[in-house]
Known about the structure:
The protein is of the alpha/beta class. It folds into three domains: 3-11 and 30-90 and 325-435 and 495-567, Zn peptidases (Aminopeptidase), CATH 3.40.630.10; 96-319, Glucose Oxidase, domain 1 (3-Layer(bba) Sandwich); 575-753, Transcription Elongation Factor S-II, Chain A (Up-down Bundle). Helix content is 39%, strand content 15%. The protein contains 25 helices and 17 strands. The chain has a seven-stranded mixed β-sheet, sandwiched between helices. Strands 2-9-4-5-6-8 form a six-stranded mixed β-sheet. The model is unreliable at 6-27 and 598-626 (pLDDT under 50).
Amino acid sequence: MTYRARIAALLSACAVCAFTPALAASPPAMSQKELEAKFDAQIDPAEMGGWLKLLAAEPNHVGSVHDKSNAEWIAAQLKSWGWDARIETFEVLYPTPISEALELTGGPGAGFKATLTEPPVPGDLPTYTKDALPAYVAFQGDGDVTAPLVYVNYGMPEDYLALERMGVSVKGKIAIARYGGGWRGLKPLLAQMHGAAGSIIYSDPKDDGYATDDVYPKGAARPPHGFQRGSVADMPIYPGDPLTPGVGSTKDAKRLDRKDAVTILKIPCLPISYADAQVLLSSLDGPVAPAGWRGALPITYHVGGSASGGQVHIAVKSDWSLKTLYDVVGTLKGKDAPNEWIVRGNHHDGWVMGASDPLSGQIALLAEAKAMGVLVKAGWRPGRTIVYTSWDGEEPMLLGSTEWAETHAEELKAKALVYINSDGNGRGFFRAEGSHAFQHFVNQVTADVKDPETGVSVRDRARARLTVTASEPGASEAVKAEGKIVADPSRDLPLGPLGSGSDYSAFLQHLGLASIDFGYGGEGESGGVYHSLYDDYEHHSRFVDPGFAYDATLARTVGRAVMRLADADLPVQRYGDFADTVSTYLDEVKKLATTKSDEAKNQARLLAGNAYALAADPTMAHANPAPMAQSPTTNFAPLEGAVAKLKTSAAAFDAALAAKGAGLSKPQKARLDAVIRPLDQTLLRPEGLPGRAWYMNMVYAPGRFTGYGAKTLPGVREALEERRFEDAQRYVGITGLALSAYAGELDKATAIVNGG
Length: 756
């Protein structure tokens, strides 16, 4: 009997207690407070732990047997709880390794071969699997290269400027970078843009290894031979299947030739452990690395790059065939507005077992779905339709959610009110990012959820943490500003903006659907096993969320949000919050336009801004840019006018709804919903962002050179940062048009509320 089979047998043995029969006699009509109390009573952390042990029993990467069986199990559970559940499949390009090699061929340590698999941990049974992917990053470019090695620190634009000042080039060489400082995919991308022939990424113990904690299994930190898998696809161009940008990757979809897929890199890349990285880095000569580049390995860090130092052979060959994704979609049909959808999702695929990332969020989703099923049996029906989704293929490139959203784009635009996301979860503090019109709503929800560690509301605990953080020495100006906000108890805890890195991206940034991402963390320690063999049940239950208390708290939080949105009689959005937030973003970009940066920062921006030219002509990266000329003046009047109009329109709507919302007739409410539901789609512009038209939201986007990190008013902000002043002026107008359209729709909504 397999490990999973033994777990399944144990779960089956207690299946008789899968539902709580005491609710059978509950009256069909319940107040919101009663409903949520009964919902909370169904959330069982111990049961959630059993689900996690089952789901994380074996490797869950795309194409694995266990990934498919988990999808089938999730669908079966939803059906057993009363949901209309199905599996939707998509055929996507997903490379898997055929062969890999990494060895030192010259310099000290010549003949050393890297260990590209992770050793098991005694007593931790799942780590003995033979089915885990080896050291691998998806969508790198296959190749076989032997060349000198160069250490590039975190491999960010400023690091290449520092190398330039040291007289070291990566052209024709292999760049080795440590994780951190920026998104994983930027490291090989920037190496490629600067002419490197190959790329290596390792996790330095200073960042998530023995310098931070005891290593696993004694502590939570990354063990010497652990490594971080991941995707290095150029996701800021577009996520999803590289061969089907903008359309669903169905069986009969028209596909690009792989050589024409711009999100696939051109050079080979491998992740390695810090135990192996120590040998490679020890072989380097050349300048001693700057102080900020030195990690915690017991060596002198050199930059390398010379013929007498380390020579490395890297070879990667992949199977570039199509693989099948298994998205699970469950529906509870709304009784009042079945064609209005609240969509909620979490992914079920992982790089190996994936207990913390993503299954800790998946078990919260399951707990919510089960509890709602019990409430339905007790007589409750949601007013709007609730759609619960369990995505496949998130890890490689947001594959499952993007292909589903692109396939169902028109229906989603017509029906979906909001998309609510979660991903990995852990013990600690509440946090949320999302569409800012929902900021007050999120605060209302989290004011009613009790923190299991302190007993206060999760909102108030998060507020206290931010207050303390803002007062600490070295706090950033942004954190200090947030601290001033939360110090006023009459003001809401701010929402952060959404960039990318999880499944909300297609909904928010391509379809224009309002989105919120929920989670807890800050005290549990999952970073040391991120995307490794050791992210399993044992590690999560010991170091990330003992007792599954915060996984259960996530379920109570998101479940409340979903049910309140499904049953809301009037819009819960407060548009003044959105308008005020956009106004702060405008102030930021105006300041950016007039701030004189030092030469090094300007040169870093020049390199980033000329990324598309670099891709065509990598030699330009090795030029020594002249000092920056005076920046031309940007005319912000079109955007200033649009933001002023937005603030006026938002204030008028919020005031009208507060004064007259309760007295609206049913036909008025229907007309109001018809305006409010698609409102965020006005933030889309068909031009998209420069060089990446898939991203059409003019307020929220991932940064071109931040990966996961958000850029707000991105068309203007990034153009200014990268000194593309014509683009900046153009996107002042384009963004102004989007915000003006948004304000115009708010005016229509206000007229309806006022009786028009």
